[in-house]
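> @MW can you paste both from yesterday?
MW: sure, first one:
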Amino acid sequence: MAGSSSATLVNARDHGLPLPAAAYVMSPYADLTLAGATMETRREADPLLQPGSTSAPASNDYTAGQDAALGLIARCSPT
């Protein structure tokens, strides 16, 4: 998942560990809150994840009940 990859890189950076020269992260789950403006403006382009969809509850499994907007959970949170 993009979230765990991004969180690992941010945590490594915050602890002064060596970082890769680059990272390529691609995932529709970068925003686990499903609250970004593109959820509406790009709805037709990505029908996989939409508010109220059956895919949304999967983020609850990943966050284990924590707030999906927490920094190390969703690095691309719109909040």
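MW: second:
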Amino acid sequence: MKKIASILALAFLTIATSAQSLIPIKYGIKVGANISNIISTSNEGVKNIESSALIGIAGGFYMEIALNDKWYINPELIYSQKGASFTYEYTHEYEVNQSDVHNTSHELKLAYIELNPTISYKATDKLALNFGPSVSFILTPDYTILTDKGQNDNLSSHSELLEGVYTEETIDVGVNLGISYYLTENFLIDSRVNSSLIKAGTISKLTNTGIVNGTITNSTEMNIYEIKNIIISFSIAYLF
């Protein structure tokens, strides 16, 4: 993944250098909001999580490099908040032939630095169609377990389990699709959908330690959910 990021960065530096002889490059700032969620895949035999969207902020630096009067390269360096709130159930096997169903709720907040080398086609003077890759570098993963309650938690024989964990990937690679509307030559509104193409992280929860009263009875069991990010983003940009 580091090679992918390096190649993309080098490619857009090359494009920026070669495009300087055409039309002057414009620089700007962009701020906006993300409506973010996750897409998850569970391991075999495990019911998948149910997720709902979170609202986050996004903002950073923006460039507009004209290749001609229709095609543009718009590199961005953006701070972006993603994540979701979600719930899942698991069955805790705490004694031989004894189990307990747990209902849980969680919140996952992820902060990234994004490199978005967007390709833009100006369909009209006001409207542009945008697409391109996205490479995101994780800054701070914040995973919070809000509730984890079993129906029989008060039983003396009910053993405790370790808390669930989130293991993040350093880099997330995705694709952007969107449109921009120019209110003026230097002021525009942008909307887009960003979807991960690779795994962004893994949520895991131990549901059976395989030990009853100090005796190993069977193998450990875990719920595992691999996630991808998906966001809808709305922003405004000003070009100098």
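> thanks! Residues 40 and 227 are 4 Å apart (CA to CA).
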